[in-house]
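Per reviewer request, we include the raw input and output of the structure prediction for the construct analysed in the revised manuscript.
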Amino acid sequence: MTIHDANQRQVFSPAVTQTASPLATAAQTATTAAAPAAQYTPPYQDGLFRLLFSDKEHLLELYNAVTGSNYGPETKVEITTLETEIFDRKKNDISFLLDDKLIVFVEQQSTVNPNMPLRFLLYAAKTYGKMVPKNLIYSRKVIPLPSPEFFVFYTGTQDFPEQKTLRLSDSFMEPGHGDLELNVQCFNINYPSGAKMLERSKTLQDYSLLIHRIRQKCAAGFSLEAAIDEAIRTCKEENILTAFLNDHEGEMRGMLFRYLNDDEFRKVYTECGYYEGHDDGLKEGARQNALQTAAKLKAMGLPVSQISEATGLSEEEIGAL
């Protein structure tokens, strides 16, 4: 029996220590900086990227594109994505066990977080903890562990190189000291700036093209909802993600709305004319678009609970539409 056969779900609830240490001060400063006043932020939920690449075939295609590997369809793939809520409801996007030898962690981000090495470290610790039965960590025999790899795929609108490495050691207070390291490979998958990466994966290219077309329509004056509708229509006509769109179109509309958070969220709403330089204007514009999206999803027959997750609106607000 391999170690992952003995998985047991556990609730992860890290304790918060109140202290005046430099780390606590830095954490408080970072939290303040990351939360501008009156900014509407959709809830962190499963995204379009996660849904698309939770398919085994797409995952293998993605991994082969990133690493230059050639794993075939017979390769064993086991999804290990964390379902337990950690750190204010933020889950990791995708993680999977590949051929019982590699554990791969993947995130898609519209704003690259410089703390991704730390986040991946915590995700990895939690994932390994679920794989290894507690009693085995006291064994005299070495426990075989799948080797970890960490990837971030960037889809934001700021300038970003085709590839960049983030290192845990860059966060250490004493540079050059410490015995722990974790490297995260970041790839720009925007269309067309991430062309080299996109050439290696048709699914990744199609995903990038869909996001690109939504931005184009917004820049041309379309509302966000209309931009999503038009981008989906043209992609289907051109056989871009056609099967996926046919199977998940209603669900995907909500995911696209959720996806636009943080800097990307603000940027797209600027392009769509909702934001005119004031946080309250952004918040109201976002709310109106959430209501419009919710009404459309409701008309398509989606459950109120799913619409609430997709838009951030309460079930009472959706029921009143």
